[in-house]
Please model this.
Amino acid sequence: MRSGSSPSSPEVEYPDFSSFTAFQIASVTRSAVYFPRIFGAGANWQSGSIYWRDHTNVDAKTYSLAHLHPFSRVIGLPAREGSSSRSVRLRVSFSLHTFTRAWSPLDARGDAYGDNREIRAFCMERYERSFDLPAIFHTIESRRCECTHGLRSRTNYVVVEKSRDKRYAAFFDLLRAKEWDAVHLLVQSAYVLDDGQVAPGRGRIHFHALLGRALRGTRPRRPP
Model:
């Protein structure tokens, strides 16, 4: 998603495949190593098991994506009325929208990067800012989370980090995992907001509340 476009969810735009050879398409769609485990509608929950391959551009310069490999951590969920405290395994993964943007006819073929669903263009700005993402989601429970509209009007969430005189928005969603007391957090997209752009989120909600709802299979009502 380009800065200034709809902030609520990643866009899906495809290049003209006729401009790619069969070999190039095959090379691009092998950008990720798959270990299928988690699936869902809308967002590409399969990315929870994807370890993105490093990107090498037309000048043979390689950009590591190791910092965007999935990770997990345990979060203590405090006791609340009707339930005791519990430890929850949070599994965090990152979609390719965190380091790519929509394809443009002006993009070089060497900038193409894709998964099993779409081909996009490697974005240097998003890539450079993506190094902030692991720290953000290692401390997500101490950050301000807000609601926003996602795919098919589904409520998802956003956290906005203010640094370097810019607002960096990271959009994410949560899904209860198959294993006991575990939740998958998918970072769907992340990019710098344009100056003067309306904030994408509304209504503060604590991450512990989101985690508890994910475990129960419910979602908060999006503020008007």
Q: What stands out?
A: The chain has one domain: 17-55+87-216. The two ends are 24 Å apart (CA to CA). The chain has four helices and 14 strands. Residues 17-55+87-216 form one domain.
